[in-house]
Amino acid sequence: MGKEILRLDALVTEIASPAGAARVVDGVSLSVAAGRTLGLVGESGSGKSLTCLSVLGLLPPGGRVASGRILFRGEDLAGLPQKALARYRGAGIGTVLQDPMTSLNPLLTVGEQIGEVFRHHHAIRSRAERRRRTVAVMEQVRIPAASERLGAYPHQFSGGMRQRIAIAIALAGEPDLIIADEPTTALDVTIRLQILQLLRDIQRARGTAILLVTHDLHAVARFCDEVAVMYAGRLVEQGPVASVFARPAHPYARGLVAAVPRIAAIPDRLPAIPGQPPRPGEAGEGCAFAPRCGQAIAACTAAVPAVRALGAGRSVACLAPQLLAEAAE
User: Strand 234-240 vs strand 314-316: parallel, antiparallel, or unpaired?
Assistant: First the structure.
């Protein structure tokens, strides 16, 4: 495994509300190493994107990192002023978001948007040199006729090409970490696979660490090394993708894996997790999943389960003894 690039230690993020501060990220600890991809999965509202925004220092109004550490290349970013954080965004940490039509500026050409990264983060004042580097990074993300399309605007590209441009902007800063937050949601299946394969090829060439936020468990199985399952702001299970998917320990992780369609054996009705997740910040005192869990015991509602190691790099926050025993076999 490569050098650790990002580590979150007991990260707690709160969002102010009329009823008080809502804890939307609750004690999250995870790490991503160089050349590795960590998939962060869970239902909408589980806190995945807010975890990423905490790392970037881009929380919405009223949001703050209340406690914990955000270690990027060994330096704690938690609590740094925005001016200091700006040195890392774009240069050390690249970002690829869900919808390139909203992340790209519709009023600037793609050449201007990529070139600005070289000007701002690498202090390249020569327009000719910025142009050369811009063409090179566009070619790296496989945009055809790159030199001829520098003057085109985002709306003149397809959705897949726009996402390649967003990746090019992220790569222009030569980051050690790329945070990809649902980067393929707006794309069709074929283009989705091309974008994920592109990210993996770039990772292999550069040794970049990737934190991939997604709902697509097929993508996690194919492109990620480790997976972290998030529910109601807390991590409930982590570990190598192959072992977690083969024998998930937490009931919620089991439900997610069971709900993935399999062509070889299509059931009449896909399994579903009953009930609804709690609203952000309303997880309660015990295990947030207990009201939906068929394996819950009395202790589950009394206190938040501590994270325990299962061996082989796996961990789970669950009290159900039968499930823990089965996962450890």
Answer: antiparallel
Q: Look-up: residue for tokens 């993300």?
A: 141
Q: Locate 116 and state its tokens.
A: 């600005």
3-class SS of residue 33: strand
40 neighbors 253 (Cβ within 8 angstroms) = no
> Tokens representing 172?
């222009």
Helix, strand, or coil here: 136?
helix
Of 100, 118, 272, 72, give the one whose Cα is nearest residue 180. Answer: 100
What is the CA angle 153-155-159, rounded to 5?
Answer: 120
Number of helices (H) and strands (E) in the chain: give both, helices first: 11, 12
- The region that residue 248 occupies, defined by phi over 0 for left and psi between -120 and 50 for alpha, beta otherwise, is beta
Alpha helices in the chain (DSSP H): 48-56, 82-85, 100-103, 110-122, 127-140, 159-172, 189-206, 217-223, 241-246, 251-258, 321-328
Kindly report whether the global pTM for this prediction surpasses the value 0.90: yes
User: Are the C-beta atoms of 303 and 297 separated by less than 8 Å?
Assistant: no
CA distance 11 to 5: 16
For 12, 17, 206, the CA distances from 62, given in Å and listed in that order, are: 14, 8, 37
pLDDT tens-digit series, residues 49-78: 999 999 999 999 999 999 999 999 999 999
